[in-house]
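Tokens in:
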């Protein structure tokens, strides 16, 4: 729950190293750039005063177009302390998408890394103040960036905050961040969540520690971009719990292992694409690093192919934990390694006050084993939400007759024990000859083919069937595969109607830093000039 933000009191009560006397006090770091909690909190409080001086008031929003580094979290905390919401912006966005988020959010100020200034200034509405942040040397090196000198056209973050005294009286209500979807199926939309009472925030921190299997003062690693909901929420809750936080500016499989060993990381949160990249490291590289400190490896955000999860459990042991939910709902279902091994392929079952229902086209709740649209009831400590500027879209998510349940567009089923299984995204479902086909299953089969590094399956137009399947594949370097070999591999494992008709090999599939696949970039050219069946 992003509404939780660190404070001096939080640091004093939860920030100590506890029973780890040989370990340095918790800190926040990224690529060799580190801040202890006292410095972090002082800088955040000065930024908060600076925001007030810019006229940022409770209920306002500020945008961040920055890579992972401690200053990112300082600005996020500062926004909460003045009663405003931070708006993390995907720094890959350009032109229309970037203009849309900066305009739609109504951000009253923008914090931006120097190398991203040109893209921001090209679309920023007139009159919005800009605070420029230099890219730390380690972050620049990790991202392969050339040195970018300050422009001198905007206040520099470090000088700007140094000119303000720490904020003396933080706002009573601290609203969550406004997370924008990455626009995989359309224009990004902002999820606006309500502030939550302090007792609910404390419950959220306790739930985070319990479900992520980490103790106050523990050590966590966040390898995904903070502009996504899960890592953003994770980071803010980790700060509220006083954890030692290591941020990766970008994911690199071997660097990920090195950081776990170097900082004795106990808990990480990843996406399944990272598992795939880790497993593709040579065995001798994987065995080079001591990962024995790990007690909890949490993954979410996308279905994990069963063979990949089995391989990770075989490697790391029963430390994998999985959850399912969305930016709108938070985590709703959970499962640990033992539960997953007993229910292979599940994303868990609802915990606490959360709930799951599977609904058919007629709006009726379906029995166990039947596939339909998934509706989620967030836990009681999760804030109510709407979509910024689009309450009708929020209303359309609700399930008639199921108060408190909303859909985020996924298809799946429950088993007799209440464990949930995902089939695919509703918008990714392909209807071929009247048959519903879920591409995620086929992508999982393709990823088990030796030499395939990445796979995207989607529907393309067909005169006879309406839609047929296309598979775009990225192979390992030096690997040459033929379309017939790919089709034969799928045909051996799945029904004939699930075999792709078109097989295309790509140098690189369009994914963002967290591994989210932009299928529309592959699919749209096939449908140009005609109506999609989806």
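Residues out:
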């Amino acid at each position: 729950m992003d509404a939780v933000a660190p404070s001096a009191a939080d640091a004093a009560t939860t920030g100590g190293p506890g029973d780890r006397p040989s370990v340095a006090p918790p800190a926040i770091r990224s690529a060799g750039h580190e801040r202890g909690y006292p410095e972090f909190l002082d800088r955040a409080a000065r930024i908060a005063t600076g925001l007030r001086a810019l006229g940022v008031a409770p209920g306002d929003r500020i945008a961040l177009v920055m890579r992972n580094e401690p200053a990112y979290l300082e600005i996020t905390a500062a926004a909460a302390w003045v009663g405003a919401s931070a708006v993390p912006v995907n720094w890959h966005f350009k032109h229309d998408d970037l203009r849309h988020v900066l305009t739609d959010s109504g951000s009253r100020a923008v914090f931006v890394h120097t190398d991203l200034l040109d893209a921001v200034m090209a679309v920023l509405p007139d009159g919005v103040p800009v605070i420029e942040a230099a890219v730390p040397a380690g972050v620049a090196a990790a991202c392969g960036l050339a040195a970018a000198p300050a422009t001198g056209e905007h206040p520099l973050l470090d000088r700007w905050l140094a000119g303000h005294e720490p904020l003396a009286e933080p706002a009573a209500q601290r609203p969550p961040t406004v997370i924008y979807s990455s626009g995989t199926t359309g224009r990004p939309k902002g999820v606006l969540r309500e502030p939550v009472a302090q007792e609910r925030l404390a419950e959220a921190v306790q739930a985070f520690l319990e479900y992520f299997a980490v103790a106050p003062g523990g050590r966590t690693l966040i390898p995904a971009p903070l502009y996504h909901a899960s890592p953003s929420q994770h980071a803010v809750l980790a700060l509220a719990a006083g954890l030692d936080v290591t941020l990766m500016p970008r994911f690199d499989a071997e660097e990920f292992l090195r950081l776990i060993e170097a900082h004795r990381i106990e808990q990480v949160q990843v996406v399944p694409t990272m598992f795939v990249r880790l497993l593709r490291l040579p065995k001798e590289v994987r065995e080079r690093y001591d990962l024995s400190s790990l007690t909890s490896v949490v993954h979410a955000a996308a279905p994990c192919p069963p063979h990949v999860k089995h391989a990770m459990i075989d490697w790391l042991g029963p430390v994998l934990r999985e959850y399912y939910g969305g930016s709108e709902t938070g985590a709703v279902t959970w499962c640990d390694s033992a539960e997953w091994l007993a229910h292979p392929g599940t994303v868990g079952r609802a915990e606490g006050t959360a709930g799951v229902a599977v609904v058919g086209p007629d709006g009726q709740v379906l029995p166990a084993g039947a596939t339909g649209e998934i509706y989620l009831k967030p836990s009681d400590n999760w804030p109510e939400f709407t979509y910024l500027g689009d309450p009708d879209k929020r209303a359309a998510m609700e399930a008639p007759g199921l108060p408190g349940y909303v859909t985020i567009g996924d298809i799946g089923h429950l088993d007799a024990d209440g464990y949930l299984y995902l089939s695919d995204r509703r918008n990714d479902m392909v209807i071929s000859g009247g048959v519903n086909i879920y591409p995620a299953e086929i992508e999982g089969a393709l990823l088990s083919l030796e030499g395939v590094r990445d796979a995207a399956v989607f529907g393309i137009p067909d005169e006879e069937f309406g839609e047929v399947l296309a598979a775009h594949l990225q192979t390992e370097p030096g690997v040459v595969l033929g379309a017939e070999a790919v089709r034969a591999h799928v045909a051996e494992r799945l029904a004939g109607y699930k075999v792709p008709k078109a097989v295309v090999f790509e140098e690189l599939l369009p994914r963002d830093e967290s591994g989210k696949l932009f299928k529309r970039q592959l699919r749209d050219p096939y449908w140009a000039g005609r109506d999609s069946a989806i």
